[in-house]
Amino acid sequence: MQRKYLAKIFVTVRPSVLDPAGVAVQSGLKQMGYDNVEQVRIGKYIEVTIISPDEPKARQDLNQMCEQMLANPVIENYRFDLIEVESQTGVF
Amino acid sequence: MQRKYLAKIFVTVRPSVLDPAGVAVQSGLKQMGYDNVEQVRIGKYIEVTIISPDEPKARQDLNQMCEQMLANPVIENYRFDLIEVESQTGVF
């Protein structure tokens, strides 16, 4: 039996790393009159739907995907929430 | 008295809109051997620290920022969680 999981992945620039996109957006917001914005940090939000026999295997795959492709571990952190969306029987 | 809020903003491509970046990442993951990935959707995760007198005002500002700059309402949805991180007295 295979299960379907939805992973909500957050990839953020490490706090010690400069985020030029965030600085640019903050500057733009200031020009629009929002001078009450203290900081802007821009990251990625990725939703991955994955078929897996169980949750530990899904988590293992997702960690590998994040480290190898979705995040750059040198300058980014990642974390994800995992929810089971549907159980499926049959062959994939 | 001014309060400091942290908004965690999620900007996602509307379900009816094609997400080419997500399709490309899914294809890349498949080439790496992850053929159990059914869908990938890529959005933005933005953290904004904002100074505001109260929560309703902070929410109002953030909605305007999202609609005017952070998201493209034609093809993207947004939502945010707001938490108070610190209370501050004094003049800003």
TrEMBL record, chains A, B:
PANTHER family: PHOSPHORIBOSYLFORMYLGLYCINAMIDINE SYNTHASE SUBUNIT PURS. The lineage of its organism: Bacteria, Bacillati, Cyanobacteriota, Cyanophyceae, Nostocales. Pfam families: PurS. Its EC number is 6.3.5.3. It catalyses: N(2)-formyl-N(1)-(5-phospho-beta-D-ribosyl)glycinamide + L-glutamine + ATP + H2O = 2-formamido-N(1)-(5-O-phospho-beta-D-ribosyl)acetamidine + L-glutamate + ADP + phosphate + H(+). It comes from Nostoc azollae (strain 0708). It comes from the Bacteria. Its main location: cytoplasm. GO terms for biological process: 'de novo' IMP biosynthetic process. GO terms for molecular function: ATP binding; phosphoribosylformylglycinamidine synthase activity. Pathway: Purine metabolism; IMP biosynthesis via de novo pathway; 5-amino-1-(5-phospho-D-ribosyl)imidazole from N(2)-formyl-N(1)-(5-phospho-D-ribosyl)glycinamide: step 1/2. The keyword Cytoplasm applies. HAMAP family: PurS. Keywords: ATP-binding, Cytoplasm, Ligase, Nucleotide-binding, Purine biosynthesis. GO terms for cellular component: cytoplasm. Part of the FGAM synthase complex composed of 1 PurL, 1 PurQ and 2 PurS subunits. This is Phosphoribosylformylglycinamidine synthase subunit PurS. Part of the phosphoribosylformylglycinamidine synthase complex involved in the purines biosynthetic pathway. Catalyzes the ATP-dependent conversion of formylglycinamide ribonucleotide (FGAR) and glutamine to yield formylglycinamidine ribonucleotide (FGAM) and glutamate. The FGAM synthase complex is composed of three subunits. PurQ produces an ammonia molecule by converting glutamine to glutamate. PurL transfers the ammonia molecule to FGAR to form FGAM in an ATP-dependent manner. Belongs to the PurS family. The keyword Ligase applies. It is found in: Cytoplasm.
